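Lab meeting prep.
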Amino acid sequence: MSWLLYAELAAAGVRVAFADGDQLCMCYPAPPGDPGRQHVKALNVGSMIPRYRSAGAQCVIVNGVLDPSGLETELLPDADVTVCRLRADPDDVERRFIARYGEHDDTDELLREIRDEVRQMDGSTFADACVDTTGVPGGEVPRLIRAACKDWPGFTGELDDCAGQLSLQPGPAIGGRISLITGTTGVGKSTIGFRFFMSCLSAGLTVGYVDLGQLGFLQPADATDQDNQRLKAGNLAAIWRNYRATGATHLVVSGSITSQADLQLYLDSLPATEVDLVRLRVDNGELRQRIMSRGAGGSWPETGDRLRGQSAEFLAGVAGEAVQAAGALDHWQAEGIAVDTTGLSPDESARVIAKSIGWPDRPELVH
């Protein structure tokens, strides 16, 4: 729903940014006192907003799960926040949950927890507006949100031009260790990167995960910032600084970086941090196959995935471009290592990465 609103505003010419809040708290184990990582989620959103504004955004749409205590709006000092809560009757929520995740051994317990959460949320008062989505088709929900939040400046068009009004000061040295997993479109950066993150977590590290694509949703993009790479680099540094404050020592990052100049943006934004660059590659036939499978959802459900639901003709065109881009990357003499994932599963690829860069130093990952 939130993505549809973002796309509608962008199409109408509004300078708008988007952030998926649930992508901004992927750091485990959770710090003491913040078991649901609600505090770090709000902290990260609050850290990104001034960077969006500096890049020209007039408004930001953020989605994500909140607990019944609501949003710590004091952590978003640079924003006038409107909170819209979506709700549905418990039976409807249960049906949606089962349709999305299926039934498992612990489904009954999870459904009891969901019903309790629905009850608590319905008793909450933190939201400025509430939209009942019971029985409502997904495509109709944006219209209901617009009606419930009709005075929000993003919908009324009463927006100021905020570009350049904020002065962003560099933060302190943040240190730690980052694995930066990159490669051409469709090679498996997000899927393999997330599996590597999960293996690091299983090994006992305090580790976070970030997908660079989630840090640069801004339309129209700044003409001086190709593919919003400078925006993404600044947001990554801010998030890593917050994760470090919660005790994280390692961070897995996946995303597209196609030149030494872009890579340098990230390295410059991460002072005192040891960055292990990993470039994934795969043979051309398998790359084409992976991209064609994305149209039918052959990857994790990533917000803003431009390949999901596309025609075979469109995907074939993207596959051809990806093969050419992979060839260019093969000739780019960058730092780091190349990992060939041809014929490997995501878990097997994650183990190759662990062995190649030597972290985490746990036998169960490198053997």
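Slide two material, second protein:
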Amino acid sequence: MAKLDLVAPYHEFFQLVPADTDELRQEVYRIRYDVYCAELGWEPPEENPGGLETDAYDATSRHCLLLHRPTGQYAGCVRLVMAGEETGRPAIPLQEHCRETLDPAILDIDALPRGSFGEISRLAIRSRFRRRPGENQTPDGMGRELFQLQKSQRRRFPHIALGLYLGAASIGIGEGLEGVFAMMEPRLARHLRITGISFLQVGEVIDYHGPRAPFYIDRAGLFDSLRPELLELLDAIREDLGIKP
């Protein structure tokens, strides 16, 4: 397959923006409310007043937004929960919500230094940017096509969620983390592997708004087999986020 230029369409249509002010974080929480509460009904609106969806992990997270350049609107958001100092609760959400599915024989999360990992979570894309068949049923817009990189694809940029995943990974790189966790559909992990993003499944599949399983990726898993065009895209995203190589 011929190498594709993903950087030019990314710069034409999108920009990753660090949500590092109160105003920008409010925008993150507003997108999450629109998707998780109002649209999908996954979170109760009455527990998220003011049209903002938040939780206890936001205070220890790095957030980012995806700006749609042609409209000036924010298309989506994602966060990287940082497992920092002891706070009296589990380090990351998946330890709290699906600890029983984790397999310590594959990876013992409790043996990892607390400051060495994080979790990609709360990825949400506004409905107007999830228009292809199947995309409107999930917050990340994972339809059947996912990350196929054929030139004939309708979008010149393969998938909005891919940019958000790479944005969260870039934040982890900038913070010096050794690896990150994520709860995702196994089929998503398989498609990510095609692009060279090799997540390791570290626990059982559970039914949580569809089949989900805990996954982990370390620096080697991200860099060693990443397709060249995606490595260039990662570099462009890191530049947008102000993260030095």
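Talking points for slide two:
Residues 102 and 109 are 8 Å apart (CA to CA).
The helical segments are 7-13, 22-39, 93-97, 160-174, 186-194, 219-223, 228-240.
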